[in-house]
Amino acid sequence: EGAALATGGTRRGIVVSTLAEARFFAAGGFDDILYGFPVARWRLAECSELAQRLQEFQVLLDSRQGLEMLLQNPLPGGKRWLVWLKLDCGNARAGIRPTDPEALALARGIAQGSPELVTLVGVYAHCGNTYGCGDVAAVQAIARDTTAAVLEFVTA
After folding, report:
1. Which of the 8 DSSP states describes residue 78?
2. Which of 57, 80, 115, 154 has its CA 20 to 30 A from that of 48?
3. Are 117 and 80 in contact (CB under 8 A)?
């Protein structure tokens, strides 16, 4: 019920942390879901099944190896992998640092490589480094730093 309220009843545009959550929401009529963790090879079959079943199942990538894995495992029936480049803007959990020279090359590789197989949707950053903040000002400072890093990367 909370997810339906959060999406204004559209049942679109949610982010999940686990594939169990993705399956739960898909069973509840959601058809636009982002799996908020870079796809691991051992999760590929589950992600493929969801991508084929839903109108839009989106995944995160943060490495050249992840991109190659998706390119080597195309979706059937004309579907494409919908990909967000996961940036690590200080969380140090997942993602590629936006200042890493490989990050821009990876973004270009996704966007210009084989868009009929893998399509770049955008960039994604998660401010998990706010979890330990003790006040609103600290959260706001991390949000400003993350926003600046993402905007600088996208501009480049």
Report:
1. T
2. 154
3. yes
Convert the pLDDT of each residue in 138-148 to its tens digit: 999 999 999 99
Question: For the chain, which residues make up each domain, given as ranges?
Answer: 1-155
Strand partners, 136: none
For residue 123, what is the enclosing H or E element? strand 118-125
Domain topology for 1-155: TIM Barrel (3.20.20)
Cβ-count burial 11-50 (b if 16+ within 10 Å, e if not): beebbbeebebbbebbeeebebbbbbbbbeeeebeebbeb
pLDDT tens per residue, range 7-41: 898 989 999 999 999 999 999 999 999 999 999 99
Q: How far is CA 126 from CA 9, 27, 89, 156, in A?
A: 24, 26, 8, 20
Q: Residue 62 and residue 10: Cα distance in Å, rounded?
A: 29
**3-state class of 102 per DSSP?**
helix
Q: Give the global pTM.
A: 0.89
